[in-house]
Amino acid sequence: MSFPKRSKKIINLEDAVKNINKGDTIAIGGFAIYQRPMAFVREIIKQKIKNLTVIGVTNSIESDILIGANSLKSIETSYVGFEKYGLAPNFRNYAEKGKIKVIDYPELICIDRFRASQENLDFWPAAGLGGTDIVKLNKNIKKFLCPITKKILHAVPAAKPNVAIIHALAADEFGNIISPSYKNMAQSLDILISRSCENTLVTVEKIVSNNFIKKHPNLIEIPNHRVKSISLAPFGAHPTSMLGKYSDDEEHWNEYIRASDNNESFKKYINKYIHSSKNNDDYLNKIGGAHLSSLLQVDTQK
Amino acid sequence: MNIDYTLNELIAVNLSKEFKNGEVGFTGLATGGPAALYITAIPLVAMELARRTHAPDLNIIFAGWIQNPDLSKLTRLPNAEYDETLRDIPCEGQYLTYPYQYSFRRGSISFGFGSGIQIDKQGNINSVCIGNHDKPRVRMVGPIFLPEHFSMFGREYVMMPHHEKRAFTNKVDYITGVGYPDGKKGRKKLGLTRGGPELVITPKCIFDFDKIKGKIKVRSIHPNVSLKDLQDSTGFELGNLNNIKNTKSPQKHELKIIREDIDPHGILLGNN
Description:
Chain A is an alpha/beta fold and 302 residues long. Chain A has helices at residues 13-17, 38-46, 61-68, 89-96, 107-118, 133-136, 185-194, 210-215, 250-259, 263-275, 280-287, 289-293; strands at residues 25-28, 52-55, 72-77, 101-104, 123-126, 142-145, 152-157, 163-171, 177-178, 200-207, 220-222, 229-232. Helices cover 23% and strands 19% of the residues of chain B. Chain B is globular and about 45 Å long. The two termini of chain B are 20 Å apart. At the A-B interface, helix 4, strand 4, helix 5, helix 6 and helix 7 of A face strand 9 and helix 4 of B.
């Protein structure tokens, strides 16, 4: 007897990015300078999708490169910076010219905004925001009195991303995503944003068999029914790091920062690595196999 | 006469006396140069010194997620929040996901350390921008965790690595964390029932606050800093400083603990 076949969720990266529309509000996985879905972001730039809003927590190169490529109209976050690599050059430049709208939120409130979306609430009740310019400059944050105690609180709008983009370790062809058992903020936030949105697009380092998934069912924090598509993108977080797989590429970060010094050199960078690259493989070839190998880590995850 | 000590040691020792036994101290991770020294390295040494003198039950949270690290095992100051140096340092706990293993909104953090590009005489801090917000003269990284430091922690030690006029101003251009507008009373009106800046520590002096009037004041001036230099480097009026004491010099045994036990290789405070 023959049964109907399950649907596969693998599509190529180019087609996955077609799910992003001009003007969308996107959540980009990872945290600060860790595990950003960079291959996906590069493809957004290649397809020249504009007017996007990033809803984030702590942001770095994944947003800075979108800003420099004129793809973002606004960003809502607690931080845009490169941590050990300093300030985010395009973010700073565009903000100071008034060319990008920046809406500031405190760091953990940024996460609470996704927790609100996860629970399908329209706001998160926050204490401790009174008197800050965060509240004063943001009409979407509303002061209210706790209906139980009459304490002063602020209703902070839920994140409500249209699309969530995540780079993960592995998935089977049905879209069950493997999360490592040892996680930090980057991987935890990926899980949270996958639960706050119905359009989760995932890139993975590796496609594994369904049997492999069945051997590790406890690692499925993002199950296939929460995933819209998966696309193969090895080294898809480059130049950011991937926990337990590879370190961040210091050389490339510095190349990016040098390129961001002026419009001309940034355009050249974008042309070289994005517009004149056919796809992610082509990009990786430009970075070089030996160089990429040098970033590989010994997996010491417990 | 005087024992030889560095400015970093002076600050670390004075800070250490502020912490009580049984408290929980939180330090985030700043990266690069003076910021890392002031909000990460000096606070770590101060907390570890307190643990080894009067506060054995003080808990240290390092980089926001490492509980009571063995600092002597540091081979370098970590330069990224989730780098391998931190992941692999011996410690009692790793706080890896939010909500964390502490309930900061219930008051589980006794004190923290923060910094900004500007602080004003009410104790408000700015880490966001200079000039108009929508087209600023200088845009910085953003609020990060500072609003919470200034409203949810028991108290905040503001660590300012540069004591310059433009950083110590009458009114900050953007309020990231709230000080004492109209004193503690004013904070209450804003719904801030806990916390606030306790001290502001700079290379030239230590400030504290008149929390009723809501005004910053000089608590002590570091040795070898003149009153004129201090006023000339500060953007607001300091008032009459004639009766201000010097910041207390470290004791021999305190320096010994720092140099021999806590930071034998000068990784945290440097060697000069």
